[in-house]
Structure to design on (873 residues):
């Protein structure tokens, strides 16, 4: 550790006192000295005094004393107690140093690193104590419980051994609690350090210096100009003299850097030509262009980065870097790499010389202008960083930094305004004219502020950078300018990697690609499984990208590397929530283990089915049982291994099973039944999403979703039918698309007895061959089913490739049969019925009575109407 050179000896007394205070009073003496090994006392050889007679009510005492039980002597405890005392003393030292380092971000950062080391050391010390505690407890348990009142006292040997073991357990447990206390104190101090560092960062970021508009700033620059010139000549003159004194080494380093650049540039030509072919019959798709850009960007950057690294490390190895300019040289290397990376990313996306591979839909002029502006922005940022380090190296006064910030801010804002002023005109695409000739789309007239979501923020950012520089907020101005370059480049890089992952996912799912073809032909994996594998790998790669991108983004936003590494370590390797420790890294590894074992299970099943479980060697029923058993066993093994590796104790599942059994006993049988049935549906997959099924009660439709409790079925009238999973498992279900989408469609046809059955069968067979949706293999089937009471009853049965086209096929068959019968003079039978009316005289009498009754009522109504007219005044 960094503070070890300061000496730990002055804190030895504090260490022992802290442990003594932390441990119980009965075992403080055990900390400073090694534990005394157990001494087995033997009975005296010459015992002449007779033993006292036992009381009447006491149990009989054997004449010969039993020997003390053999115990395993524990090793010395200094090796496990010393780290505890070391951690306590270190914690005390860091807490005192915190008060002295509150105003220094560097000192606080060093303390944060030391606290991380202290936490690791405390964990190691606690882990070393656990087996000692368990060993001592096992020995103590072997002695049994101490005797209670009115029980005979145990032998002195056993009592002494019990006291010794109890003291050891108490000492070790106290030391273990001390390690836990150190971790808590370290966590609390870390939180305080983080709070102070964030306050310092905000204070430095918004610290205001003199405005460059004040004449005093320029007056101070004029007064210090001569001194700055002399310091510049002294430092860089010495550096130039060192390089001039070693011309051979300097020439060798420069030659190696130039050779590395030229060699790698030539080597990258062929891969770039394969990634982006110069001539293509058809323009590449967006996915193809995205994949090409993500592959071309590192190839563009590799020669320049390699040459810069060779130049820097070669000069360092040849002692060509003056010790006073070492920091400046590192800044030059970092700036060169940043400029090269930004240039490679911009070139890969904009492609000013190859419009067909351009990822953004821009014209050639807009692409070139945008590329120049981006490179200028990166160059200005690099120059600002280098000059800032040069000012710090020459120990120049603050006005130089103020003026430098003003100049670079104005240049930076000017380049941002140039980006805003560049019209994002889309590239002209060839279209077919009305006369059949090729012409170009007219370039649309767009506002210079298009797209507004990009250019309005750039305008605001440029104004903010210039305004903060003029107001004297130098740190804020430089921070905003740096985020434009670093964060912008990083976001573009992440987007390119994301597009590359998506393109790889599509290529893996396609049988035309190399990996997709190998999965399809080499392993026999179906399209659905290939898509599942590709999707799973895509998710894992995106998670890995997020694990790399998020910490890097925090670094770009000003967080220190120690903070980011500590947070990333806690997130990946594990963090505590109550009594549960969660480790994202172990979870990802557990998921990868589960997928790997599941994939291996599928390969074993496929190999067994191809080599062992063949129909000519084994009964199909037994083969199917073995195949399914291997699948279920592999799935269970993968699940148990993944859960165990993920940090979940398998024994806790017994508690869950007990809770479920209690719930089932209290009336949750139906819910558990549906839950288990849903798992069976999801694993065994007798019914899949998209299948056309018919339920026992007559419900029919397409399966839209399968959950662990119910299944959603969409009927023909577009209504949703929610069916419990147990109904699909325990009842008979017709699945039209379980194996494939083939279905047999049949219609009934009646013909007159006057027609020849042979001729009708031939006509129906010809009709079945002419229907578009009917498959010819297996061939259609035509039969005479019955000699009905009114007609000859025939049937036509055909097989369709898609069960969803069954209704259309039936309509086509009926229409074709109708036209065929009309053309060949075959009559459709018309049922004839004879109606016999009995007791016709009675019907006549009934009709006469009804007519007579109606006439009588009409006469009564007429007479009543006449009487009413006569009485009216």
């Amino acid at each position: 550790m960094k503070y070890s050179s300061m000496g730990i000896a002055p804190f030895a007394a504090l260490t022992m006192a802290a442990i003594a205070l932390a441990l119980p009073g009965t075992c403080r003496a055990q900390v400073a000295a090694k534990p005394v090994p157990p001494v087995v006392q033997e009975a005296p050889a010459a015992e002449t005094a007779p033993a006292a007679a036992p009381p009447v009510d006491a149990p009989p005492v054997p004449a010969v004393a039993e020997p003390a039980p053999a115990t395993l002597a524990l090793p010395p405890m200094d090796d496990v107690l010393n780290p505890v005392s070391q951690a306590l003393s270190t914690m005390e030292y860091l807490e005192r140093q915190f008060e002295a380092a509150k105003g220094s971000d560097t000192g606080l950062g060093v303390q944060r690193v030391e606290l991380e080391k202290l936490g690791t050391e405390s964990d190691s010390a606690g882990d070393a104590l656990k087996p000692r505690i368990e060993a001592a407890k096992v020995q103590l348990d072997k002695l049994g419980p101490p005797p209670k009142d009115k029980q005979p006292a145990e032998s002195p040997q056993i009592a002494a051994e019990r006291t010794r073991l109890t003291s050891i357990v108490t000492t070790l447990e106290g030391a273990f609690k001390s390690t836990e206390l150190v971790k808590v104190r370290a966590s609390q101090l870390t939180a305080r350090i983080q709070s102070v560092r964030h306050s310092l960062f905000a204070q430095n970021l918004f610290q205001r210096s003199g405005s460059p508009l004040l004449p005093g700033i320029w007056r101070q620059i004029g007064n210090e100009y001569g001194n700055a010139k002399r310091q510049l000549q002294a430092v860089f003159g010495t550096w130039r003299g060192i390089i001039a004194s070693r011309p051979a080494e300097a020439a060798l380093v420069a030659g190696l850097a130039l050779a590395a650049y030229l060699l790698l540039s030539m080597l990258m030509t062929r891969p770039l030509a394969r990634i982006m072919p110069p001539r293509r019959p058809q323009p590449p798709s967006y996915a193809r262009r995205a994949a090409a850009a993500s592959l071309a960007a590192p190839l563009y950057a590799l020669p320049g980065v390699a040459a810069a690294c060779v130049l820097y490390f070669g000069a360092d190895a040849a002692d060509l870097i003056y010790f006073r300019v070492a920091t400046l040289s590192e800044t030059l290397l970092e700036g060169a790499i940043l400029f090269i990376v930004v240039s490679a990313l911009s070139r890969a996306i904009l492609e000013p010389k190859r419009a067909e591979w351009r990822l953004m839909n821009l014209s050639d002029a807009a692409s070139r202008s945008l590329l120049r502006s981006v490179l200028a922005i990166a160059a200005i940022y690099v120059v600002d960083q280098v000059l800032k380090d040069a000012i710090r190296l020459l120990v120049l006064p603050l006005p130089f930094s103020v003026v430098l910030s003003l100049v670079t801010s104005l240049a930076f804002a000017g380049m941002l305004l140039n980006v805003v002023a560049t019209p994002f005109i889309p590239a002209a695409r060839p279209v077919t004219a009305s006369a059949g000739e090729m012409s170009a789309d007219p370039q649309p007239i767009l506002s210079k502020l298009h797209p507004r979501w990009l250019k309005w923020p750039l305008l605001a950012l440029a104004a903010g950078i210039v305004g903060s520089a003029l107001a004297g907020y130098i740190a804020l101005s430089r921070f905003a300018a740096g985020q434009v370059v670093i964060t912008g480049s990083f976001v573009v890089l992440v987007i390119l990697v994301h597009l590359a992952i998506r393109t790889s996912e599509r290529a893996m799912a396609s049988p035309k690609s190399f990996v997709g073809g190998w999965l399809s032909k080499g392993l026999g994996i179906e399209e659905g499984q290939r898509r599942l594998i590709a999707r799973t790998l895509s998710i894992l790669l995106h998670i890995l990208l997020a694990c790399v991108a998020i910490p890097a983004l925090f670094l770009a936003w000003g967080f220190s590397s120690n903070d980011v590494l500590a947070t990333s370590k806690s997130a990946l390797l594990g963090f505590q929530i109550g009594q549960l420790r969660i480790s994202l890294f172990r979870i990802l590894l557990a998921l990868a283990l589960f997928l790997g074992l599941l994939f291996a299970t599928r390969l074993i099943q496929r190999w067994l089915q191809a080599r062992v479980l063949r129909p000519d060697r084994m009964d199909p029923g037994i083969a199917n049982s073995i195949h399914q058993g291997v699948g279920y066993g592999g799935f269970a093994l993968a699940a148990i291994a993944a859960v165990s590796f993920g940090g979940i104790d398998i024994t806790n599942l017994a508690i869950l099973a007990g809770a479920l059994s209690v719930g089932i006993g209290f009336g949750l049988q139906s819910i558990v039944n549906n839950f288990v049935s849903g798992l069976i549906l999801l694993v065994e997959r007798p019914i899949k999403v998209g299948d056309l099924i018919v339920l026992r009660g007559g419900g029919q439709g397409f399966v839209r979703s399968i959950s662990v409790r119910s299944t959603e079925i969409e009927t023909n009238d577009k209504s949703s039918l929610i069916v419990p999973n147990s109904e699909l498992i325990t009842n008979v279900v017709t699945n039209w698309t379980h194996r494939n989408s083939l279905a047999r469609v049949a219609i009934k046809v009646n013909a007159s007895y006057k027609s020849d059955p042979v001729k009708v069968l031939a006509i129906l067979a010809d009709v079945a061959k002419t229907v578009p949706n009917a498959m010819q293999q297996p061939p259609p089937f035509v039969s005479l089913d019955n000699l009905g009471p009114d007609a000859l009853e025939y049937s036509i049965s055909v097989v369709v490739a898609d069960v969803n086209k069954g209704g259309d096929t039936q309509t086509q068959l009926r229409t074709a049969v109708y036209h065929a019968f009309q053309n060949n003079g075959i009559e459709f039978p018309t049922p004839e019925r004879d109606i016999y009316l009995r007791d016709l005289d009675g019907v006549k009498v009934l009709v006469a009575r009804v007519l007579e009754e109606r006439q009588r009522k009409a006469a009564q109504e007429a007479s009543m109407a006449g009487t009413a007219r006569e009485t009216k005044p």
